[in-house]
Amino acid sequence: MSTIRYIGVIISFAFFLFSIFRYKSGKLRRIDLFIFFGISLAIFLISLQPNIVNFITAPLTGGYEQANRLIAIIIVSNFIIYGLILKQFLRINSVDRNLGRLVEALAVSQYKEDKKIHNLKKIIVVIPAYNEEENIGNVLKRIPEKIRNYKIEPLVVVDGATDNTEKVAREMGASVIVNKINRGGGAALRAGYQTALNQEAEIVVTLDADGQHRPEEIERLVIPLINNEVDFTSGSRILGKQEKNSRIRQSGIVFFNILISILLFRRITDCSNSFRALKVNELAKLDLKEDQFHSTELIIDAVKKDIRFKEVPVSVLRRYSGKSKKPGSLIYGWSFFKTIMKTWFR
């Protein structure tokens, strides 16, 4: 037997013992242990008798042996490796989702201990905020206290901020939830939505903390819900007005509006606007998973589930101060596209 085959036998035993040790220490699940056993056995059998893989390698090499057999084994091994990598990606995604749920649950739980909202407060305005100490105060002071017979309760979800956003929000009298780590606007909103459910609010409104949305326009969003015309309203800068920024971003919004309109068979004029209002009793119907591109996910999921929806003209301004937390245009566009397709194919 050649040296390389001896090495293969040693590696197979080492792999086998390693998997046993990891399983005993609780670092491998049973299904992973079986996978490791299978790999160890395959290495062991191929090392003892290379001809055992001829039935696999022959179709790949046209029946040639020796060097071509090695090439075929490498090809098959790559397929196995790709499968294992895919499995790990799926596990990572699952762990990431569970981590997100844990962070949100901890934030909401801490909020309950910190301060409770009385049932009289029927509309909760959720404001996700990441390092917005310069802007959040100006946003909060402009939120109306009451619309018709509905009292307004601002709720700031501080998403892993490293500045004084939390302090400023509390000084302004807002209720505050604190995510200990930065998860993204979508994750922050889910914590806010859960709080709205827990506190039995009737309507939840969301707007940005950077001053791009005008709190004075909240009434435009909630009146159709109060009048029971629809269950979900989303602000539209196309129907309203906007202060233009990047031409690339503007072109991207136009493209994605057209794409979503085609997919949903209805006209959508502003798919990326996070200024919106939703009846709280509709939240249970939604399956919200995205940590970043939540505005598009919500529109697609709501329309697919026949939640009564319409767009309302609003203003979108430049942020008061500071830098945008959004990624570069190309990464933003690609991620936006992925969110649209993932949500639509659910």
What does this protein look like?
With 346 residues, the protein is α/β, with parallel strands linked by helices. The chain has a domain at 115-344: Spore Coat Polysaccharide Biosynthesis Protein SpsA, Chain A, CATH 3.90.550. 51% of the residues lie in helices and 15% in strands. It is built from 11 helices and 8 strands. Strands 1, 2, 3, 4, 5, 6, 7 and 8 form an 8-stranded mixed beta sheet that branches. It is elongated, with a radius of gyration of 27 Å. It starts with a helix and ends with a helix. The mean pLDDT is 79.
Compose a concise summary of this entry.
With 346 residues, the chain is an alpha/beta fold. The chain has helices spanning 3-24, 30-48, 54-61, 67-114, 136-140, 165-171, 185-198, 218-226, 247-264, 294-304, 329-344, and strands at 123-129, 146-147, 150-159, 175-179, 203-206, 232-242, 276-279, 309-316.
Give me some keywords for this one:
51% helix, alpha/beta, elongated, Spore Coat Polysaccharide Biosynthesis Protein SpsA, Chain A, 346 residues, 8-stranded mixed β-sheet
